[in-house]
Write a structure and sequence with these properties.
The structure is a homodimer.
Chain A lengths: L28 H19 L6 H8 L3 H8 L2 H26 L3 H18 L1 H12 L10 H21 L9 H24 L6 H13 L9
The structure holds a DNA duplex.
Pfam families (chains A, B): TetR_C_46, TetR_N
GO molecular function (chains A, B): DNA-binding transcription factor activity; transcription cis-regulatory region binding
Protein name (chains A, B): TetR family transcriptional regulator
Chain lengths: ~230, ~230
DNA sequence: CGAGTAACTTACTGCGAGTAAGTTCTTCTC
DNA sequence: GAGAAGAACTTACTCGCAGTAAGTTACTCG
């Protein structure tokens, strides 16, 4: 659907424009790259990484496959380019919410809410992220494994910083324990996001954030000094 | 390694056995199925789902590809068959540990320890499980998504049961909150398992389990009544 | 207008999943 | 021990898709 294969005649198109629409051919490189990226983001979001072929994307944009290879190098390259934009947005949104908060308790809650709200507002984004990206990260897994590990690492560092903020002033905690806690929280929020995206009427972001906060807050004070 | 391509000559092998070894050809179906399954488990564990071709498996067993298709239907079918065995073992191990424990607090801790220990003891298993299986489960993700969702669902139900056990007698909690808590714990343990498998000197299962227990235990008492 | 280059295409290769149509080996009956 | 019946197994393909080589068309700037 969505008007595939356009009205551009494949061969003699130079005589075009007789119907009025200036058949956009030969756009500027930057513009084409953006166009391809947007189409790819949409199609990957709909059909997943495996389910999308480069020919699909090429057809959607109305361009031939080698052009995409010239601009993005490989299917992985194209996918990573999609991921880069999306994760930057997500990370920025959550970081902003955390940094805007007053104390540590508030920061944690605000971060959770921002996370779940962002994913509610950008379901397509979320599809791209989790498909082989955010989650598929076994040893030889998907192509985006390394890239999404970066995002995750950034989140984990953010969480670890919050945990440290929460310690009594001047105290330090066992680094292992901080890491374990940060990994746990990261894992919990990812799993909750997936869960919410797959059930018909998920609890509100606030509800989930509050429950998670209740679950974790007290335990965060039990970190031992090394 | 491990003596690839065997000594069976591809063409005229009926005149074989001149060297002594009774070149095992034409085994019983059950035996062949097991043989294929074991090879597949190993290769999937080493190279991942994507990185393994059916020809690889066929060559490893010393058999032709269509035979594998006859027995397992498809690459997905073969992968799922591997998964089925592994997850059954994992689920059983953890369940046993939980059920053998005295009270709820002990059950939670014992479950964590059993989980991390099992994965330490079966790294190959773990590779197969996380590669596109345990984690890759976006909308149109890997083939094993549905299968591993089942395992996860089983764990989540186990966790939810433990949480309920922990409530004051006669009390009931908001089902949404129980679900949120169970999803969180499942996500945390999965992420921790991946993290541990990817760093050089991970903390012991007991250490991780203890930290997780500390993090969660107090919060488990904050569940509201609906 | 013509040279130079950026934008783009046609037409392939190669690999890997899956299949059609057999070909041997084994056993079971007479 | 024939020889039929069926299970175990193979050769030789098709088809879809990632990736590429080599060329062609349109814009731009002297």
């Amino acid at each position: 659907m969505t008007s595939t294969t356009h009205n551009t005649p494949p061969t003699t198109e130079s005589a075009a424009a007789e119907n009025g629409g200036p058949v956009k051919r030969r756009r500027d490189r930057r513009a084409r790259e953006r166009e391809i990226l947007e189409a790819a983001e949409r199609i990957f979001g709909e059909r997943g990484y495996q389910g999308t072929s480069m020919d699909d994307v090429a057809a959607e944009v109305g361009v031939s496959k080698p052009l995409i290879y010239q601009y993005y190098g490989s299917k992985d390259g194209l996918f990573l380019a999609c991921l880069a934009r999306l994760r930057a947005q997500l990370l920025e949104t959550v970081s902003d919410a955390v940094l805007a908060a007053g104390d540590a308790e508030d920061a944690l809650y605000a971060g959770f809410v921002a996370w779940f709200e962002f994913l509610d507002d950008h379901p397509q984004t979320w599809s791209v992220l989790i498909d082989e990206g955010m989650l598929g990260m076994g040893p030889a897994a998907g192509p985006a494994a390394a890239a999404t590990d970066e995002v995750r690492a950034a989140f984990i560092e953010l969480i670890a910083a919050m945990v440290r903020m929460n310690l009594p002033p001047g105290r330090t905690a066992d680094p292992d324990e901080i890491e374990i806690v940060a990994q746990s929280i990261s894992g919990a929020t990812e799993r909750l996001a997936i869960w919410r995206s797959r059930i018909p009427a998920p609890p509100t972001p606030e509800k989930v954030a509050q429950t998670l906060q209740n679950l974790l807050w007290q335990g965060l004070h039990t970190l031992r000094t090394p």
